[in-house]
Each structure stands twice: as C-alpha cells, then as structure tokens.
Write a structure and sequence with these properties.
This protein is an alpha/beta fold and 423 residues long. It has 14 helices and 13 strands. The strands form three sheets. It has a six-stranded parallel beta sheet, sandwiched between helices. Helix 4 packs across helix 5, helix 7 packs across helix 10 and helix 11 packs across helix 12. The termini are far apart.
Length: 423
Amino acid sequence: MNTKIAIIGLGYVGLPLARLFSTKYPTVGFDINPERVKMLMSGHDDTLEVEEHLLQQALQNGLFCTCHIDDLRDCNVFVVAVPTPVDENHRPDLMPLQKSSETVGKVISKGGIVIYESTVYPGVTEEICLPIVEKVSGLTFNTDFFAGYSPERINPGDKEHTVEKIRKVTSGSTPEVADFVDHLYNSVLLNGTFKASSIKVAEASKIIENAQRDVNIAFMNELAKIFNAMEIDTHEVIDAAASKWNFIKLSPGLVGGHCISVDPYYLIEKALYYGVMPRVMSAARRLNDGMGEYVANQVIKLMNKKGILIKDAHILILGITFKENCPDIRNTRVVDIYKILKEYTSNITIYDPHANAQEIEEEYNIAIKTGNIDFLKHKFDTIILAVAHNEFKTINLRDFGKSSCVVYDVKGVADRGQIDGRL
C-alpha cells in the first residue's frame, strides 16, 4: 500500500518521529494543543528536540501539523506517541492513550494499522487500546484493521542518541503486520530494529529498560547515604570500583522525568494484579522519590556546621529541569528540595537558563529566574547545584555566594575546591 503516516501527539517523542518519517513518507502530525501546532508550523520546537533547520526542512518537504481530526482521514498508518503518566497515588493514568485510541477509531479505515509507542505495562495495547479503536470505528481487529507496538526510546536533550540512531523494538498483531512494522521503522533508522515475538513482549521490554535504571540508581543513592554517613566521598568510591572491567558505573542523583520515575509504577501495578509483590522495584521507587528531601537535609546540616542560620537565609538553586541541557520539567525532583527549604526561608531563588518560567509557574507555582546569571553574584548564604547544565560547569559557584556560603553539588560535576559537600 501507499503509506501515509499520522503521528498522534507531537511532544518529545512524537515530533522527532514525525520529522524522521517525513523524510520518506507523507506524514501528518496531530496534537490537541493548537498553540503547539501553530508554533511547529512556524518552524520552532520549544522542547528543543528537533533543531529548527531540520523542522523547517521537514515542513518544506511536506510535514503537516494539525489539531483537526479530519486531516487524518486519508492516513493508513497511525502512530500513537502520547504520555503515560501516573496520578497522585502513583496509579497508571491511561486517559491520554484512551483518548488517542478514540481519535484513531474515528478516522481509521479498512486495512489501516495503528502502532503504539507509549510506555505501558504488558497487555495495555491489546486489552485496553484496541477494543476502543474497534468500538469507535466499527471495524474488527485483525480482520479490518491491525496493530503494532514499537516502544519509544527518546532521551530528552540527548543530541548523540537521536531518534534516527536509536535501535527500535518492533512488533505486530500478525506475522505479516509485524514484518510491515519492522520494515517501516527499518526504512528510516540507521541502526535497525529488533523484532519481538509479540506485542506483549515488546511492551514488557520497554518497561524493564527504565525499571532497571531506576533500581540501579536507587542502589547508588543508597550507597551515597551510607558513605556520606561515614564521611567517605561516594564519587571517589565509584571511580575506584569502576576500575574493575565488569563494574557498571552509575552515579547517585535525583530521578525525575517522564520515564524512569514513572514507568516502574506501571509494572508494579500489573505485578500486584497477578499477586506478585514487586519488592525491589517498590523499594527503589520509595528511595529515589525521597532523595530531594535527603539533599535538602544534607544542605541544612552543612549550614549548621558553618554557623549559617537557615531561618531567612538566602539560598540559590541552580537548575530546576529534570535533567541537564533540556527544558523538560516533568516530575522534576528539584522541587522537593525547594519545598523542604521553603519551610525555613522564603528567600529562595531558582535560576535555570533552559526552563520555561511560565510552565514552572503553572505546574509548580514557583517563580524562577532566567536570563543573565551575573546579576545573582555575591548574594547567597547557600548555593545548590541541582542540574548539570553546561552553563553551570564553566562558572565559579562561589562567585554567587557570600564569603562563608555553603556550596552543595547534587550532580558531582563541580570542582572539588568550590564545594562543601556533594551527593
């Protein structure tokens, strides 16, 4: 068939994918946010995942972004790339997927294929999403329309492992569709694919990628707590251990974002449904979710040692995004540091050159500083390097504090001579 692709969801995952597919196929990008669509059609991506010249080139080559569902009716391949968050109780929130499945159901026709990229627990595609497409469309699954699953592997802010360089897992609802989906992705990827034996295997493979990292980072965070109590530098211990050929080198830190801090809850939920207690994953989640509070308490301890009264102290937090060199603020654990310190002082300044101040205000009710950092010099009793943006690696942190200020490095990237403590 003559393939025309619709990408449902134009965020950190969908837009790079739409740009890539548009190099080989007629592609329509769909998003429910008209402001987002307007911005993309002007050639700018505020997530910074697609560089302007690449987006503008894609638009010139025929990529069309829209918020009107009728623009999808002549597409025959639908790729769903919407968020899969959790609610306040850490329960999977499948509403974006369900709404997207309804959208597909309204426009898919006989012979169409829907491919899901959103991270889910095994079974969501076939047990929840596809019945919705069936009901809304009036078509029969695996007779009138078909499905695939190819989990996203986008790493926000990573300019080395971009979408075309990622090796993708693929799968399909029939052997023939699995071959089609595999060929479709292979046609635009540089490093090929891994064809899984079923949709459920593909779903499971994605979710354990992030659960594994969550558990490994939790181990490093636990080590940091142990070695800090023993007054041993954790990073020096890790560097020494990494001299062994099979040691996996990771660093302690805050675990936020849309993947590692969220996806394990999907597998935890499904494990409990089957009567299996996922103790390791659950413990890792609790430990990692508590690291912001731990950092705040470590800072308070250092302030006390230096005789700095935390009540009404002036504190500078450098960075609020969930990771370095990107504007993504989803589930950032820097907010946890802020909330603990806010109990003692209202004089907290957060500076981040990558974050969108309006988004921070709307999401977390926190005002931040952007622009030139120099105006913040020599003002603070305490400085916390929370996010390892490149801009922060080239400055002298002590230039921004008073003579006896405390400097704490969450990321372990600052010069040791500048800091009083690090995670």
